[in-house]
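Structural prep section.
Before we set up the soaks we want a predicted structure of the protein with INI in place, mainly to decide which crystallisation condition to try first. Input record follows.
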Amino acid sequence: MKNYKGGFIGQNKHVAIVAGEFNTVVTQKLVDGAIESLSRHAVSDNDIDVYWVPGAFEIPFAVQKLLKKNAYDGIMTLGAVIKGETDHYDLICSSVAAAIANLNTSANVPVTFGVLTTHDLEQAVQRAGAKAGNEGSATAKSLLEMMSLNDQL
Ligand code: INI
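Run finished without errors. Recording the tokens verbatim:
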């Protein structure tokens, strides 16, 4: 029997971050956490490109364009959809999650999901590094692991 599992060393990996500007007080923290985590795992600053889109709804569009470039070993998506602020919360959450999942399975490189969906701003802030860890950092670690596993698949 053989086990295959990705590691967390990001040397020579080229990564794109696609982030929504909506609720930027939260998403900037997610981006900061992601970059910090990538740097800690040997991804060079020169190998990280951050693409900002207006809101979570626009994330899949940018991801599919970037995938066509074949320039990245992995792509991370970061956003914050907050229920208190929109009537179309459920629509945005489910369409964005489904679109990113589709891109992930149709692409040759991993796409990880770091779009927070919370009931209120407070909860989002907690998950962007205040108390409940930083989801950007966690999403970066998942991407590192998947990029490494992808080299073995
Ligand atoms: N986009 C978000 O990323 N988070 C939100 O909470 C949000 N709210 O509340 O509406 C939001 N809306 C904008 C949406 O993502 C698109 O940018 C917009 O509909 C234009 O296509």
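Observations: The radius of gyration is 15 Å.
Flagged for discussion at group meeting.
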